[in-house]
Write a structure and sequence with these properties.
The structure is a homotrimer. The first copy, chain A, is mainly α and about 210 residues long. The mean pLDDT of chain A is about 95. Chain A has one domain. In chain A, α1 runs parallel beside α4, α1 crosses α6 and α6 packs across α8.
Chain lengths: ~210, ~210, ~210
């Protein structure tokens, strides 16, 4: 198993675990848990593939992944108790997977001939919009859109680094490793020190009221 | 008109009626009622067609169906009073339609070369995700995901029976009838005796608190 | 720059501004503002392109538009204060853009060989469903679906006029201008005199209770 395949598989499993946490908070049954876990794990890549008209979809072409998410969902009752305990361990593999999905999404889009900005956008969508779909299925305001530790911003920065390195003829594998390292370091730092974007409010030009 | 076409048309009408009930609860106008009724009737098949890259979409290739749903929506004020009275009659045609859509969805996916599990998933999506989209358009937690009489589970079971019978060379039409009968019987029994999946909670290993 | 291109660009900018107003009400950060603004501006056209299997998507083929929306989103804090003041000026360019998007959507669908009703539907989706997606991303009941000044109804009427004029061999450009004028006049009148569709309720046949 190559390192990239290992990261990918870990990312799918960790995404599914986050989906379970999300769905369990809403009192869903196994059907809901599976759908939310599936959306978190594959939603971003599905949007990318639909937008780029890529076929078959990621999870149709890799049909063992849906089965893995299904089995995890069936066991979610058993898993949940341990999950809350091992939750502090999840950010690293999650960030690794987010980084990998972001950069492969960027690469697919660039290969399809999109502009650099659109390629970065589709990379960020691939890496982070699974969580948005999971939140929407749970009838929640997407946490990606409100001030919380930087996530899409890390993906955005790393995707530009990756495209920039390719532009100056750095070999693909080095550009990939550099992008992944930047995204993971940035993301873990954002979680550690709670870096967020401010909420958008009117800039009035007056100081804050005391 | 073949029996299958009759079931299909009835299913579209009944789905639209459920959509009207959903939308009316939210105080929507005719535009909202039409959109929700449309989503309930065609949302599952549209997701399937997008995921499998099938063209044209079901309702673009069968353009009389959107017109039927539109006319029903225009008459929804008149229909609503009667609808609440005839509502007890709806589960049978609804279950028949859900069964038919599930099995045709499964068949389309299998024909497109997906794995058996993915084919069953796409069948369940075809049969049951119209309601999910309707709930999301109404800003509600999808009832398919929370404990309520088994629905996706019936579709899931029948789709496996259908694929299993095809695998052992049962002719397609018998496999279809067997799958429909299983789904309809299972679904009506689930409604009758209120069979549900439990909500996913942590399995603590301790007995319940008194 | 042709008049149509000017209307299109203005429509994208105005849609993005409405998205900012929507997102700011929810306390979103720049990532949320950009996504909502993007959905309002391009969501309808994206649905149309996915439903018709058109490639590349509008915003992938016109990659300067996402950049414009991104820059507007970055400046949203600065823009917001002025936005509330210039808001009364927005309905005219918004109605123009909605009209243009509706009629181009109708034309694309008709060219793809859909039925007239489906072409009109896809036109209305192109012109008005960006706002629906924006509302859903903000976890709100879509304002398009509840009684508020006529919007989809104006698009619907103008799209039928446009198709009808083409049917009787009016040259395309005149049909387009006629459709745009009808939609814009109808929409502005609906806002001015608060024309709405009634909420769908049961028609009981009895008079209202005193």
């Amino acid at each position: 198993m190559t390192p990239l395949l290992f990261i990918e598989m870990t990312a799918v499993v960790v995404s599914a675990l986050y989906g379970i946490l999300l769905a369990a908070r809403k009192g869903m049954d196994v059907m809901g848990v599976f759908t939310v876990a599936f959306a978190v794990a594959f939603g971003g890549g599905t949007l990318r593939d639909l937008f780029l008209d890529r076929n078959p979809l990621f999870w149709i072409g890799n049909p063992h992944y849906p089965v893995i998410v299904f089995v995890i969902s069936l066991l979610s009752g058993l898993i949940l108790g341990h999950l809350r305990r091992i939750r502090p361990l999840l950010p690293l593999p999650d960030a690794l997977g987010m980084a990998l999905f972001t950069l492969t999404g960027t690469a697919y889009a660039a290969d399809a001939g999109t502009s650099a900005f659109v390629a970065v956008m589709l990379g960020v969508i691939t890496g982070t919009f699974g969580g948005v779909l999971g939140d929407l299925l749970c009838n929640e305001l997407p946490s990606l859109f409100i001030p919380s530790p930087l996530n899409a911003t890390c993906a955005f920065t790393g995707a530009w680094l990756y495209l920039g390195l390719l532009k100056i003829d750095v070999p693909e594998r080095y550009a990939l490793v550099a992008g992944i390292l930047l995204i993971v370091a940035f993301r873990l730092a954002a979680i550690r020190w709670n870096w967020t974007l401010p909420a958008v409010r009117e800039v009035t030009g007056k100081g804050p009221r005391p």
